[in-house]
């Protein structure tokens, strides 16, 4: 699994709040992925600190100032680690636009101004695709 070095946004099945992960501390665990030395931000809990994040089975399992070990390690020094961003008003509703948003850490993209004139056709074009 390769993740772009210039942006790291952690989003796992919708909103995965950091405070939930803090309750499930793992002691000296070997994680699938470890993100080290990133500025971890969670708007809900007001967490904004350089921390390490341990991920196993697609879920955040630990957030800690201590060093964590993992099968894959991502050095995030100078980068932001966040649960994902919501774009409430976007105009590009084509795959290329979604690719750019994903690179920016957008995990939910909505067009809330005018929508589409044919809702059934809009869904039919996207059926079976992400």
Task: Write structural notes for this entry.
By secondary structure, the protein is α/β, with parallel strands linked by helices. 18% of the residues lie in helices and 37% in strands. Strands 1, 2, 3, 4, 5 and 6 form a 6-stranded mixed beta sheet that branches. A hairpin with a 4-residue loop joins strand 2 and strand 3. The longest helix is centred in the C-terminal third of the chain and has 9 residues. The radius of gyration is 17 Å and the shape is elongated.
Q: Compute the CA-based radius of gyration.
A: 17 Å
Please give the number of β-strands. 8
Instruction: List low-confidence stretches.
Output: 1-26
Terminal CA distance: 19 Å
Structural class: alpha/beta
Separate helix tally: 3
Order of helices and strands: EHEEEEEEHEH
Strand content: 35-45%
Q: Averaging pLDDT over every residue, what do you get?
A: 78
Described by strand count, sense and barrel closure, the largest sheet is:
6 strands, mixed
Overall geometry comes to: elongated
Approximate helicity band: 10-25%
């Amino acid at each position: 699994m390769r993740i772009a070095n210039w942006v790291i946004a952690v989003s796992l099945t919708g909103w995965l709040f950091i405070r939930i992960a803090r309750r499930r501390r793992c002691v000296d665990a070997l994680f699938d992925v470890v993100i080290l030395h990133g500025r971890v931000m969670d708007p809900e809990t007001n967490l904004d600190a350089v921390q390490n994040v341990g991920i196993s089975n697609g879920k955040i399992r630990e957030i800690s100032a201590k060093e964590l070990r993992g099968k894959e390690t991502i050095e995030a020094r100078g980068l932001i680690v966040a649960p994902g961003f919501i774009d409430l008003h976007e105009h590009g509703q084509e795959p290329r636009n979604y690719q750019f948003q994903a690179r920016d850490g957008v995990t939910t993209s909505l067009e809330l101004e005018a929508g589409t004139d044919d809702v059934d056709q809009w869904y039919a074009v996207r059926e079976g695709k992400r």
